[in-house]
Amino acid sequence: MAALEKLDAADAAGDGTTERAARHLVQPWPTAGQIGAEARTYIAYGDGIYITGAGGERLIDGPAGMWCVNVGHRRAELADAMRDQAMELSYNTPWYTMNEPSVALSERLAAHAPGDLNHVFYTTGGSSAVETALRFMQFYNNVRGRQEKKTILSRQGAYHGSTYLSGSLNGRPRDRDWMDGADGMVVKLSSPNPFRRPAGMSVEAFSDFLVEEFRETVARIGAERIGAFVAEPIQASGGVIVPPDDYLPRIAQICRDNDILYISDEVVTAFGRVGEVFASLDVFGVEPDMITFAKGVTSGYFPLGGVMMSDRLFETLRRSNHPDAMFAHGLTYSSHPVGCAVALKNLDLLEGGILDHARSVGPYFQQRLRTLEELPLVGEVRGLGLMACIECVADRDSMNPLKLDNEVGRRIDRHCQELGLLVRPLINMCVMSPPLVISREQVDDMVAILREGISRTMDDLR
Ligand code: PLP
């Protein structure tokens, strides 16, 4: 079996950037044994769906950064919007002043949001958006005199962020193995992963099982103690888990019946990733109480996130017995004028043709990627729109998972990088979420590289 270190060596070579980084830069998600010394691919330029390394090697940006560069790299319109707004008003305090771009963006987002989600609170990214939604749920229940109604329901396989409370919701084992969390506040339910449903169970029966588990959990804990259910419509970092069709609407109904706030975490799925500005209602048939968003709202050009909140929540608070209670929560960069100006221009681009393009190329992307299921290492290719996951297995008959130390995802990524594609490895899975502007020909290029990268990985494992 080829040593992974050998495949990694390509990263360490070059112009000394790795050594410079090792001296001062702490990279996200480091492992203890390599902390401060990770070799990571150095990216110098971006253009459209491509990124270029320091040595001039051009790669397709398979994960679009981290599911975020939706309109593609090097969009002059976004750079101009950023510069123009910075020259006009680079910052104002959101405590007692306000700016036009944040008002205009709120109007545009409210027009796209489902139902009565007409209000926006801006944050600096996805973790702070989830944190804000959860703190708002706590405030909402405090003001209503329901101090006990705070338990949060999350799911195995979830990823909701890297702040303390948002991180406590994470359900991927590696996110929690070495980290503390607010465990007493969170209850984890099963991941709605049809690929890993119990043997012999139909997808319909699996959905019934998940709904029953939810009902039983509410009955066991007591609805009067449960504040919110938080769910990504598609569990993204958990491996692009597309749930059974009727599962989310059925859970939403139970939440509504039990006065449990439904928080739809659309940090990944919003802004065109599955073809719509917001996917909760249009794609998944759910009208949540809050939606969290980030990433694609500025296509990653500026750190911005936010929470859409419903009229219903606002009306309840306005009619409460504590009209003076304060939601003591805000960030220095809430409603940032430059971020909101970039988001407005980004929405122009999405509405001006990129959303239509994403809707049309998405099914082609899914269909072409699924041809990789012919390869013996590939257990399943799944996804929706322009997000997909290739899950590798030890054995196609049993679909048994591979041993973790095979690090198949990293191997495929390393081979694909040599061939011109950056892949996001997730243990024994590879995630694909390219910029939405990808053409059909570029999808073909991507799939051809993946086919070769997976074949080379199969050779490694022999
Ligand atoms: N929620 C989801 C569904 C995510 O995928 C992520 C990040 O990947 C987050 C929240 C956290 O967002 P951020 O990294 O911007 O804080």
UniProtKB/TrEMBL annotation:
The keyword Transferase applies. It holds the Pfam family Aminotran_3. Residues 1-21 are annotated as: Disordered. CDD domains: OAT_like. GO terms for molecular function: pyridoxal phosphate binding; transaminase activity. Keywords: Aminotransferase, Pyridoxal phosphate, Transferase. It comes from the Bacteria. Its cofactor is pyridoxal 5'-phosphate. PROSITE patterns: AA_TRANSFER_CLASS_3. Belongs to the class-III pyridoxal-phosphate-dependent aminotransferase family. This is Adenosylmethionine-8-amino-7-oxononanoate aminotransferase. It comes from Mesorhizobium australicum. The lineage of its organism: Bacteria, Pseudomonadati, Pseudomonadota, Alphaproteobacteria, Hyphomicrobiales.
